[in-house]
Amino acid sequence: MIFGIAIIPIFVSVGYKLGVVLENWYEIDSTFTIIGILLVIGVGGLTVYSKIPQNIKMPGDTTKVDKKSNNDSIINYPPIEVTIDQVRKAVREYSDKLPKGVFRTILVQDDNSIDFEKLAPYLGGIPYKKFYMSKETYDLFEENEKLIPIEMDMVQKAVDQYVKDHKEYPMLNFDPLHRVNYYLLLQEHYLKKAPFTQFYITDLDGLITHIRPQNKNSSQL
Predict the structure, then answer these.
(1) Could you read off the pLDDT of 125-151 as tens digits, one per residue?
(2) Which keywords, in A-to-Z order, does the entry hold (predicted)?
(3) Which of 46, 161, 190, 196 could form a disulfide with 185 if both were Cys (CB 3.0 to 4.6 A apart)?
(4) Are 210 and 199 in contact (CB under 8 A)?
(5) Is 71's pLDDT higher than 90?
(6) Domain limits at 192?
(7) pLDDT at residue 81 is higher than 90
(8) Is 216 exposed, middle or buried (0-12, 13-18, 19+ CB in 10 A)?
(9) What CA–CA distance (Å, rounded) separates 217 from 211?
(10) How far apart are CA 139 and CA 150, in angstroms?
(11) Is the pLDDT of residue 6 over 90?
């Protein structure tokens, strides 16, 4: 910017000399001198304007955002101890505020662990230990049960597809516990391998559970 201002006198001098030369050629009094000076001053003004740094914030300009101030607003949540019930409550509060069509599965990472960065505002911190969630049933699990949600998602998908195709649950007739029949799902290729966890079909729209239920008495929809 300083450079642009400094060269304005040079432009004026050049314009004056150019005007004098043109006047001598065409034998006109000061007309070309004035035109030359004004023309070169205009060019000089544009040059100065182009040298003004674009990141200078003019008064009233709200288009620029101070990135540093944004970074300063990021909260560093402390590590905390939480119970599974506290996590369940935080998940419920978080999902209640989700827009229509967005589900709480956005909290679940590839290994079925919960993304606590999203839940930190509801918990007041980041838990020391991991918790896990089934993407299909939303059941929560602690570290020592982390295999269950992975198998639960696999089996729930197989059960849902079997019911869609056969209009009945994949379990033995008159099984009082409503255990998922892995042999049937494997035989008909709904499962690639049998899970380690025994799952049971509940009365909640065919959702499965790893918790041994009370006695049941029907396998038909």
Answers:
(1) 999 999 999 999 999 999 999 999 999
(2) Membrane, Transmembrane, Transmembrane helix
(3) 190
(4) yes
(5) no
(6) 147-209
(7) yes
(8) middle
(9) 17
(10) 11
(11) no
Neighbours of 7 (CB within 10 A): 15
Structure tokens that stand for 87 in this block:
């996590």
Q: What pLDDT sits at residue 74?
A: 72
- For residues 171 and 120, membership in a common domain is answered with no
Q: What is the pTM (predicted TM-score) of this model?
A: 0.64
In a domain, 214, yes or no: no
Taking alpha carbons only, the member of 78, 171, 181, 59 closest to residue 127 is 78
Q: Number of folded domains in the chain?
A: 3
Q: Two tokens at 49? A: 């304007």
In a domain, 191, yes or no: yes
Task: Give 55's pLDDT tier (boundaries 50, 70, 90).
Answer: very low
d(CA 150, CA 146): 7
128 & 151 share domain: no
Q: For residue 60, tell me if it sits in a domain.
A: no
The token pair that represents 82 in the structure block: 């939480």
Is residue 18 assigned to a domain? yes
